[in-house]
Structure formats: C-alpha cells, structure tokens
Amino acid sequence: MYQGSITSAEAHRSIGSESPPAGRSPLGTLVYLALVVVPFVAFAYPVATVAFLTGTVALAVLSRSVLRTLRRRSGRVQTLTLPGLGTVEYRITTN
C-alpha cells in the first residue's frame, strides 16, 4: 500500500503556479533544422551543390557588374542603333 504524504491545496497550487518555460520561436527551429539538414543534402548531392554554389557566385558577380554599369551610365543619353529600324535614344535615371 502507498504511504505518501498529503499536501495542502496551497502547497500544490504554488508548485504548479510557475509559468512554463518560454517556447522557442518557429524561425529559430527552422534555422536549426536547416543547419542540421543542409550538410547531409550537400554530401548526398555533390554535383547539385557545386552547381548551386557556382550559380550563386555568378549571380552575385553579375549583379555587381550590372549595378556598376548602371551607375556609370546614369544621367547620360545613350543611343542604340537598330539596323533597318532607326536609332533609339535612352537615358538611365536613378531616384
């Protein structure tokens, strides 16, 4: 037979009145999951990983080059000759 102690209602309420621990944010959980899963995916698909990284670097270099060119040509009138159609004049402006 069980011979436990009987606690009063006040003692029982004080034990359960503590607030639960703060929950983790969903974003933090997703970041943690990505950090755990990404290495496995990278090792499972090495060719796709290299292609993805190469594409990312190429996109970054291309975007920097385009932005540099747009800044250099900003405000100047450019001409584009289309054979058989004529000449188009355009100006790139920035806000």
Fold and architecture overview:
This protein is of the alpha+beta class. The protein has a domain at 45-74. It has three helices and two strands, in the order H-H-H-E-E. The protein has helices spanning 9-16, 26-44, 46-73; strands at residues 77-82, 86-91. The chain has a two-stranded antiparallel ribbon with strand order 1-2. A hairpin with a 3-residue loop joins strand 1 (77-82) and strand 2.
Descriptive terms for the model:
transmembrane helix, transmembrane, 2 strands, two-stranded antiparallel sheet, 3 helices, elongated, 95 residues, alpha+beta, single chain
Task: Find the structural class using helix and strand composition.
Answer: alpha+beta
| Termini separation | 83 Å
Low-confidence stretches: none
String of helices and strands: HHHEE
What is the number of strand segments? 2
Strand fraction equals: 5-15%
Shape: elongated
Note the total helix count: 3
Helix content: 55-70%
Q: Could you give the order of strands across the largest sheet? A: 1-2
Main β-sheet: number of strands, strand sense, barrel status? 2 strands, antiparallel
Keywords: Membrane, Transmembrane, Transmembrane helix
Task: Write the topology of this structure.
Layout lengths: L8 H8 L9 H19 L1 H28 L3 E6 L3 E6 L4
In short:
This protein is an alpha+beta fold.
